[in-house]
């Protein structure tokens, strides 16, 4: 009886694993796929942005991950972001100062880690 229960559990685990793998094949490693609408890229004039934050993001491994990070920042007023999964960085531009806590909280809230934040102020 115990063997039958263990066998059923193993079969269920295999089924869920295969479903998860198929989802990753169809939608990318983070599951966002192409159905995640891209936020506006022309939202901010970067030459007028006074603040630039370069964030080293851990766990960003595909273009869908980068799009996910860009979208969440681009949907916020006064912010524009460009993420590069190959370098594992996201650049966030702003006219007003943004706290590092807010940047960190936003990235971590998406399921990634923040390995460092560099703030550059242009005069």
- Strand adjacency order, main sheet: 2-3-1-4
Radius of gyration from CA coordinates: 19 Å
* Number of structural units classed as domains: 2
Cα end-to-end separation: 74 Å
- The DSSP helix count reads 3
Q: Which architecture of the largest domain per CATH?
A: 2-Layer Sandwich
Strand content: 15-25%
Structural class: alpha+beta
List the uncertain runs: none
| Large-scale geometry | elongated
Q: Return the CATH topology of the largest domain.
A: Alpha-Beta Plaits
Written description of the protein model:
- There is one protein chain.
- This protein is α+β, with helices and mostly antiparallel strands.
- The protein folds into two domains: 1-34; 46-121, Alpha-Beta Plaits (2-Layer Sandwich), CATH 3.30.70.
- 39% of the residues lie in helices and 24% in strands.
- It has three helices and four strands.
- It has helices at residues 2-27, 63-74, 100-109, and strands at residues 51-58, 79-84, 89-94, 113-121.
- The chain has a four-stranded antiparallel β-sheet with strand order 2-3-1-4.
A few lines on this structure:
By secondary structure, the chain is an alpha+beta fold. The protein is 39% helix and 24% strand.
